[in-house]
Amino acid sequence: MASAAQIPRYTPAEYLALERKADFKSEYYKGHITAMAGASREHNVIAGNLFRKIGNQLEGRPRESYISDMRVFIERTGLYTYPDVVVVCGEAQFEDDERDTLLNPTMIAEVLSPTTESYDRGKKFGHYRQLNSLREYVLVAQDEVLVEHYIRQGDHWVLTEFRNLDDRLRLTSIDCEVSLREIYARVEFGTEEAAGT
């Protein structure tokens, strides 16, 4: 078993140099690089649906949307990560001239996976809350109809849950609205989940 001294540690600059040449994405936190696992079909379909529906509404407006390959850096905590969907209002701020590491997201959405669900709800959301620019955080389940919408109100985050395909997710910070039916288009659930919608 390797001791802590044998586990390689990297500086942020070393991580970025490696990441920009890598064939797969990795997160970085406190000197450690962690490879990100691939996503299921459902995960990709949901993220794509959300990205497309939001992106269509942003056309011609001073906002940009990104899907899964835009790295976000949380300066206060030192985490580099890749949200599933990101929107920035106004001028996007980047860490350097490569323009591949966003500093000021307005809205972030994550599609929950069995291996990342507790992280996305807990520690990762804790990191995201340190972003002064962030106004909304959305968690989308892939195995049932469930969207959790967190919105910043002063120093607090307020949660609203949506569980019906006819519900509409209103993203006030980016002035967009998407129905759960649109988010879950082409996603099939077992009969028990389908019966509840």
Q: What's a concise summary of this model?
A:
This protein is an alpha+beta fold. Helices cover 23% and strands 30% of the residues.
Which characteristics define this entry?
single chain; 197 residues; alpha+beta; tt1808, chain A; six-stranded mixed β-sheet; three-stranded mixed β-sheet; 6 helices; 13 strands; globular; disordered C terminus
- Proportion in β-strands: 25-35%
Give a quick account of the main beta sheet: strands, pairing sense, barrel closure.
6 strands, mixed
H-E string? HEEHEEEEEEHHEEEEEHH
Overall geometry? globular
How many independent structural domains?
1
- N-to-C terminal Cα separation, in Å? 49 Å
Indicate the mean pLDDT: 93
- CATH class label: Alpha Beta
**Uncertain spans:** 192-197
Q: What's the CATH architecture name?
A: Alpha-Beta Complex
The DSSP helix count reads 6
Helix content: 10-25%
| Major beta sheet, strand line-up | 3-6-8-9-10-11
Helix vs. strand class: alpha+beta
Counted beta strands: 13
